[in-house]
Amino acid sequence: MPYMDKAMVPRGGLRIDITLHELPFPYVGLGGAVLGVRAGTSALVVAGLALLVSIRVRISLI
Question: Where are the domains of the chain?
Answer without folding.
Answer: 20-61
